[in-house]
Amino acid sequence: MTEFAQTEIERRLTLYQVFLKLYEHHGSLLDEILQLENLYQPSLTRVKICYVHGVVDTAAVYLMTNLCDNQTQSLRQPQHLWTIGRNRTSGICIADSHLSRRHAAIQHIDDQGFYLIDFNSTNGSFVNGDRVVGPIKLKDGDRIRLGNMTFDFFVNTTCRVLPTVAIDLLMQLVHRKNNQTVEMLTYSQNRQKPLTEKPDSNLETFRNFGVVEKLENFYDNFSSEQKSEILDRLFSRQIPSNPSQLKNWNF
Fold it and tell me: What pLDDT shows up at residue 42?
């Protein structure tokens, strides 16, 4: 019995030492494990997922992050250098005692990408568990730990234009309210501004002259090209100042 107890103590001591090493070098990993362990507990709703998102588009280079003031912000910096630390003059100021006043920075270099630089901080900076010695290039999905704070880094350098929505789905976005008025929930792709400041009055005018009913009654008989042409003509034409002129419109 005594030998068994001694073996159990040694086993637990070994596990404790492994835990200390893991916490020392991969503290963020333990945080993720604890979050997964408590995935369905209500307390998880209070866990804040921190991130920094580097964006490069044709107009500007900037960061989006929720590390500042507990809300998502877009941060633009003319030198493309975002400092991080406890100092209030830091671009990303974080009141964390484990961070140095001037802890680190994220820098963007044209035609190269985003880099993390550590300013010889006391508790160090880590990317995916490895301590940062010199400037290290950041990749999409990197896990960064500064002192005791951990966040995910994402980078976006491309933009994809999605195809237009199918005409049958657009038609479903025209629906009746209280069986009397019609509300338009979407506009055509080329529209930059509403038809007027009071779209409801225009839609009522359309309804009075049977425009909406025409679209509804004949919708199933139109081909996709005809449906698209009807919507384009409807949205692109200017509403006549005299409502009686609507009678002369061809749909």
Answer: 54
